[in-house]
Design goal:
Largest sheet: 7 strands, parallel
Strand content: 15-25%
Number of domains: 1
Shape: globular
Helix content: 40-55%
Oligomer: single chain
Length: 264
């Protein structure tokens, strides 16, 4: 019998946190990668404690998930953990990294507009890192037939708003990476999909200037009269995880309660 694990990139808050908890409650062991300061570590410890309360393992790494050496060190540790388990496999990979620069491309003050390094960092963390993690997981045979990859995108991948340009580019890039991965992983029967959540009140959203207006507009559009929650996304991931179907792949799947189909 296989021992199922989930690797959650961005596990300490928002979508990653909710997914870690709902999968752990279903008996999946959690490998969480997060980047937190001392001030938010008590919240991380609470997540770890709750995971363990369900009888699941919690292996958390407070590291920059986009750093190549960190990725190697984490996966080296995972291989050691797996060496003591019966048929271990990373059944779910969730990419939910929200770390980028929110600046205008063009500004009256050139010093405050986005710089090349900031643009490259945003796209590398929020998009390209998915490819590098997947490459290493396949190379090390840590994922196998039936494993599922989910990457969190947003409507910002197709729409524009002030200060969101680099993140918007990263989300578009992420969706493209998902399509390519889905094709190249098909012979391994590993699926890859992007999940387009509706507007969700997360720490990442609250960093966007004028996020209050974004929330207000989403509430007005959504036929359910509420925002999407991290739990909505986590529930979808759980449902797909429990189904052995991998034929659904290469998609951008909207999970927004109909928010994006309503035109005001």
């Amino acid at each position: 019998m296989k021992t199922n694990y989930a690797l959650i990139l961005g596990a300490s808050s928002g979508f990653g946190r909710a997914t870690s908890l709902i999968l752990a409650k279903d008996g999946v062991h959690i490998i969480g990668v997060h980047l937190d300061r001392a001030s938010t570590m008590p919240d991380v410890e609470n997540v770890i404690s709750e995971i363990k309360s369900y009888g699941s393992e919690a292996h958390f790494f407070n590291m920059n998930a986009a750093d190549a050496q960190n990725r190697k060190d984490i996966l080296d540790t995972v291989e050691k953990i797996f060496s003591e388990k019966e048929e271990p496999v990373i059944k779910v990979l969730v990419h939910s990294l929200a770390f980028g620069t929110l600046r205008k491309f063009i500004d009256d003050n050139p010093e405050t507009q986005i710089k090349q390094k900031q643009m490259e960092m945003t796209i590398d963390v929020m998009a390209n890192s998915l490819v590098y993690w997947t490459q290493d997981l396949v190379k090390r045979k840590l994922i196998s037939q039936g494993s599922k990859i989910f990457a969190l995108t947003s409507s910002g991948g197709q729409k524009v708003t002030q200060y969101y340009g680099a993140v918007s580019a990263a989300k578009s890039c992420l969706e493209s990476h998902i399509r390519q991965l889905s094709m190249e992983l098909s012979h391994l029967k590993i699926s890859a999909n992007a999940l387009l959540a509706g507007v969700t009140d997360t720490p990442a959203l609250r960093k966007i200037p004028n996020h209050e207006k974004i929330i207000e507009a989403a509430l007005e559009r959504n036929p359910h009269g509420r925002l999407t929650t991290p739990g909505d996304i986590a529930q979808f991931i759980l449902d797909v995880y429990k189904d052995d179907l991998t034929w659904m792949t290469g998609n951008v799947i909207r999970i927004d309660g109909g928010e994006n189909i309503v035109e005001l």
